[in-house]
Design brief:
Elements lengths: L28 H10 L4 H19 L2 E4 L3 H13 L11 E5 L27 H8 L3 E6 L16 E2 L3 E2 L15 H8 L5 E6 L5 H6 L3 E4 L19 E6 L2 H11 L29 E4 L8 H16 L3 E3 L7 H26 L7 H10 L1 H4 L6 H8 L8 H24 L3 E5 L21 H6 L3 E9 L2 E8 L5 H15 L15
Parallel strand pairs: 2-3, 2-6, 9-10, 9-11
Antiparallel strand pairs: 1-3, 4-5, 6-8, 7-8, 7-12, 11-13, 12-13
């Protein structure tokens, strides 16, 4: 496999020949920061080292689609600044991958995983990318994703795109990485990069983080700007950090936030989130168990019961059966409204993009024309459904959006927390990874993602344990702007449980 070459003069193309794997020398953001501070490594060396990791493993994992040809020179510039005593921020000189639906003005195409958008080469950075650069992060390249953020077909295979192929779970190469931020999660889990940015509409950060054994944070809607991101819905979309640890994810979040005048929901962060990495973050908390977000995987539920014991040991009071009573109504309304919003939101993005395709209708026609490359495994039923709609002009759209948000917010998460007098809510994030199936599509059983996604509320997933060789996660979520509380709780749980371990790159189930 080759990393895609959209512009031969500006993209670094790598050919993979070494099937082996060398574990990254520095595996967490804290380790990397310490090594940089102590002079044990340089940013230039880090970029070279992680590029080598990608060279060695990407043929197996299909996690990275493009590398930034300017990354090495940017690393040298940041090394010079460090040597002069100038450190720009918490991620100074640390490489970061961006999901391939985020604009960056580094000569990289923003494709949403589609070969149709190979000509979409942004001239300006997304706001979150500007913030990352301002804080010293190095944009290493682009991560593979589920094509069109898993919003093209009802029969899709998570982690597959026509630009990057099928991303694979590093714990078991035959199993799904979940989606849509599949490449971001796989790259972090496999040590191809210390940090990555994902995006989520419903579960696209938290699900791949959980099944790949890493930490993912879906922030409150508006905390991270959405400008320069290929959209599904302005009512639910957000970018968020993905890392091996809660510390890494929190530092990345701090580097991404910032008010953006071009995003109507954007606001300034109310705190520095790294200040809330507290080892006693669970002490005295009342935690509600959302049982009606469980029950789809008996083995996952059994591991979750063990996690509850850890929460109690750390000083939390666990309140059982704190169920979200509006869950069925939320599930019934969400999809149609996403499809209606998607049509207009995507057309708005395409109108100012450099691609030749300026409408959803044009993309549908082009997918048909290039069916062998664009749709070898599944179709575009969601595209076609969205196109047949009137978009935001559908009758009752505004009223139904308000109704859906009320079901998830005032009558959903907020009401549940008030009724049970709890500080946060928890549930297992998702089942273990299912086998990749390009005939039948994803074998998805259930998850905890929808209420927080629809509400636009924060949600953190942390490694919870394993079912045989496959990692699973625990979800912490709450009302708007409560990232500080969730980070403190998630950090305490992570430190007390120590459930993350490195992947083994198995090719199928190990012998019992």
């Amino acid at each position: 496999m080759k990393i895609i070459n959209t512009l031969a003069a500006s993209l670094l193309v790598l050919t993979f020949s070494n099937p082996g794997f060398t574990q990254a020398q520095f595996t967490t953001t804290s380790d990397i920061r310490a090594a940089l501070d102590e002079g044990a490594t340089t940013s230039e060396q880090l970029v070279s080292r992680y590029t080598q990791q990608i060279q060695q493993l990407n043929e197996k994992l299909h996690a990275v689609t493009q590398l930034n040809p300017a990354a090495l020179e940017e690393a040298r510039r940041l090394d010079r600044l460090r040597n002069q005593g100038q450190v720009l921020g918490p991620l100074h000189g640390i490489p970061v991958l961006l999901k391939d639906n985020i604009d960056t003005a580094d000569g990289l195409a923003n494709t949403a995983g589609s070969i149709l958008l190979l000509d979409n080469v942004p001239q300006t950075d997304a706001h979150l990318v500007s913030q990352l650069k301002k804080n010293g992060a190095i944009i290493l390249g682009k991560a593979n994703l589920s094509e069109w953020a898993n919003f093209r077909s009802t029969n899709s295979s998570s982690g597959w795109s026509s630009t990057g192929g099928q991303a694979r779970n590093p714990y078991d190469l035959t199993r799904s990485p979940c989606g849509s931020s599949a490449g971001s999660a796989v790259a972090v889990a496999a040590g191809l990069v210390p940090l990555a940015v994902g995006t989520e509409t419903d579960g696209s950060i938290t699900c791949p983080s959980a099944v790949n054994g890493i930490v993912g944070i879906k922030p409150t809607l508006g905390l991270v700007s959405r400008s320069g991101i290929i959209p599904i819905s302005a009512y639910q979309d957000t970018a968020g950090p993905m890392a091996a640890t809660v510390t890494g994810a929190t530092l990345l979040l701090d580097a991404m936030v910032g008010k953006d005048a071009t995003d109507r929901d954007s606001f300034e962060a109310p705190t520095r989130y790294a200040d809330h990495l507290r080892p006693d973050g669970l002490q005295g908390l009342r935690i509600g168990v959302v049982r009606n977000l469980m029950g789809y995987s008996a083995q996952t539920d059994a591991v979750f019961e063990g996690a509850l014991s850890i929460l109690r040991e750390q000083g939390a009071t666990v309140i059982d059966d704190a169920n979200i009573e509006t869950l069925e109504q939320i599930n019934a309304l969400e999809f149609d409204l996403l499809a209606w919003e998607f049509k207009d939101a995507l057309n708005d993005y395409l109108a100012t993009a450099t691609t030749r395709y300026k409408t959803l209708e044009a993309l549908i026609a082009a997918n048909r024309e290039r069916k062998e490359m664009a749709m070898p495994y599944f179709g575009q039923e969601i595209f076609e459904m969205a196109q047949r709609s009137q978009g935001r002009k559908e009758k009752g759209f505004t009223r139904k959006i308000a109704e859906l948000r009320g079901l998830a917010r005032d009558r959903g998460i907020d009401a549940t927390m008030a009724k049970h007098k709890v500080d946060i809510l928890i549930a297992p994030t998702v089942s273990p990874a299912w086998r990749i199936d390009h005939i039948n599509g994803d074998h998805y059983l259930g998850s905890a993602t929808t209420p927080a996604a629809v509400a636009g509320y924060p949600h953190i997933t942390v490694p919870m344990g394993f079912i045989r060789h496959l990692p699973i996660g625990i979800s912490f979520f709450a009302s708007a702007n409560q990232e500080d509380r969730l980070i403190a709780a998630a950090y305490n749980y992570e430190q007390a449980s120590q459930q993350r371990r490195a992947p083994r790159f198995l090719n199928g189930d190990p012998a019992p």
